[in-house]
Amino acid sequence: MSEAAVVVARGVRKRFPAARGGSEVVALDGISLDAPAGALTALVGPDGAGKTTLLRLVAGLMKAEGQLRVLDIDVAADPQAVQNRISYMPQRFGLYEDLSVQENLDLYADLHGVPRQRRGERYARLLEMTDLGRFTARPAGKLSGGMKQKLGLACTLVRSPELLLLDEPTVGVDPLSRRELWEIVRQLVDDERLSVIVSTTYLDEAERCARVFVLHEGRLLAQGGPEDIRRPARGLCFVAAPPPGEPARLLQARLLDDTARVIDAVPEGGEVRVIRRPAARGEPAQEPGRSLAWRPVAARLEDGFMVLLRERRPEAEAAPLPVPSATAASGEAIIEVRDLVRKFGDFVAVDRTSFTVNKGEIFGLLGPNGAGKTTTFRMLCGLLPASSGFLRVAGVDLRTAPARARRRVGYVSQRFALYGNLSVMENLTFFGSAYGLHGERLRARIAAVLAQFGLETQARAASGRLPGGYKQRLAMAVGLLHEPDILFLDEPTSGADALARREFWRRITTLAADGTTIVVTTHFMEEAEYCDRIVIQDAGRLLALGTPQQVRKQAGETAAHRMNMEEAFIGIVERGRRQETAEATA
Amino acid sequence: MSESRSGGFWRRLVSLTRKEVRQLLRDRANLMMGIALPIVLILIFGYGLSLDVRNAPVAVVLDDASPVARDVVAGLSTPGYLAPRVVGSAHEAYALMRAREVDAAVLVPADFSRRLAAGDAQVQVLLQGADASRATMIRGYVAGALASWSQKRADRGEAAGPGAGRVQVVDRMWFNAANDSTWYLVPGLIVLIMTLVGAFLTALVMAREWERGTLESLFVTPVRPVEVLLAKIIPYFCVGMIGLALCLAAAAFLFHVPMYGSLPVLLFSAMLYLLVALGIGLVISSVTRNQFLASQVALIASFLPALMLSGFMFDLRNVPTAIRVIGQILPATYFMELIKSLFLAGNNWPLVARNCAILAAYAVVLLGVARLVTRKRLD
Fold this sequence. Notes:
heterodimer, A: 586 residues, alpha/beta, 18 helices, B: alpha/beta, 5-stranded mixed sheet, 66% helix, elongated, ABC transporter permease (chain B), transmembrane helix (chain B)
């Protein structure tokens, strides 16, 4: 047990009693770890790994078996003593939405007993760091998602705690706000030697931490510095360009299916990045008739994590999908949007936006929180009328015949919007009849989607109790029952772990190859790489439109200075904002 | 942190209370419930449900054709109160009753004049019991009219001998034969409004903090659970007292209800009851942790019973035992009894002491439970 550990856990086990009809949930299964003082510690892992539970235990909000000492205090015996000395930012920071930014800060300063004379300086610094200085009188409820998160952080930091706990501070936050939040945290660690424990699903964030604990399904999978986590993937990572004229996602799909030789494959920067199996010697793969020029690349933390994860879950449980060899993308426009405007009162949510989506394309909508993605998306699906502009979906003018257009589109919402207490079969039957299918045709379509999404074995299971990945498959199966020309997916991968996301995109690749047009929103910037074309929106305006490569180029990518999607995104949004400020002052 | 514990307590309490007051003032739904709804209730009860019965139609059946019996009809004719209308037979009167064309029927039996002379004359009064309070009023009018009729006869010297000439009214209430309640409007209204503000509004506030996740952030600060609870109680206690003030003002200036008991005692007992109601609300809120559920539970467990089972609507002496037992479990019942007595009967000290003690016990227990269920724990 080291002197300098702020948190010492020995065999911590947390079980939650069985919910009705379910079984007991083991959230943490014997965790032992030491978090160092004066440094940044990351808890990484997919949803359901036990990160939040562990942080709540450290904060004294729950009791568990095993030993847990925080700041050398037995937290189970005296939670208040710990709570007096730490600061904690829960995943959903409870801002009082009726109170202004200043009032929220004052409340937490009062509760933490920050002396009045010290507040002025502290507030000034926090407001400057969070860039909230202009909004002190605004009610917290009227801030954007990223601003709320920054205010939450400011409230937790009204004083310098001996230990700062941050539970997924960047979840649901766009890349710009994410970067800003991390800058604030790093500054505090550097300036004040603050001990911070942060949980995150973004593995790239863990690269900046001194110590990383990888959690998976309640167990500690790996621990150490970032280089320790990267080690298992060292020497296994390669990059190659796809054959000319083919989108990277097709090669990626074929490689991902080659589980004997490949651990993981993702499209990246127009190329495919692969982790090969250690047992498979040499380069990852060659394709008959086509030579791939593999370049070895340095392993990242995410690569190491994928290697660990595949060891745990060796085979994907899904049935093999048809291997796509070509895209179905054509030059024929299936969605046309011209000068689309949507106002809510005085607020312009979508401002004169124009683009077209071609048949068989995968089209991505990207943007920070409040950019107008969701509003645009809803108008495309016919769920929200446009204030003005032209909108044609599947050959139907949405302003005059929304119902007819809706029959040609499938929609999968962000939240699980099916009936949890109905079985898979009952949900399919119900939604099928809602789309107007019946009799033999309905039966045939249900059989087809059950097979397509590998749901046959689950047909009788209650939908609400399906594991997360199956829920999403069911949602997509429902969206595709009536064989729509276009499938709309709203944030389909939020909350999914890396493996589930790979599987999701693998399906989308096949679906698109079969001719279904896909329109998708996402806040994982790297997922833009799966898209044929993307738009980037900010503050209602369309800032960029094109293939991922074109968008990167627009952001200033050169052969010498390669960018990932996230950097390109930040570059474009920042440039857009500068332009707007310039226009406003001119 | 070198500050003393108690210094921290007051600073945190003031800060939390200030936050609570701000939230209360900024949330329009809260203000509607706390201030506007009591006003609406007062107006509905004051003007919508008028206590005055004017020119009530009454069927009179004269089975006795004597002049004395016919004089009864003249006696019943009290402009502004009763509008008697002679009908041919009891059957006809029953038909009018069923058709709700008359509020009451007065049956003067065939032996009326004979028995009047003997001093034990009877008339039967049938009342529309569906509207109990109206029936009670009309019964009072009929009895009063007959009493003053026989008094006048006595004054005119038509009555012979002591006791002779007195008419006994034998009444039977139709459709609600058990009715024997007196309708106490204002005291009941006070109980209702205090329950509404205390239990219903506070049931929402803790649940809202759970729902919005604000408690999780609040818990990991030096805040103690008791401070969170006190900060909830203080503002809503004030809102409840404003509701009480509105009711008392309405009682005095709108309805001119006399108050025989002492105002300080009334205020004291109201404060006790308000604490009880706040305790109920906080317990519901902390246990359900969900605003929708909390509001439903608060409605079913506090407001509706206070309306139906505390003696506000139905006299508890006349309900089935099971319901009476439930009524006697309700703290609202004891406050209802006390406040009725304070308004209309004066200071019944044994009752005041007993009911105040019961209310205080409830307050201590409920607030204690609220403290126990409000722990800084998420599991």
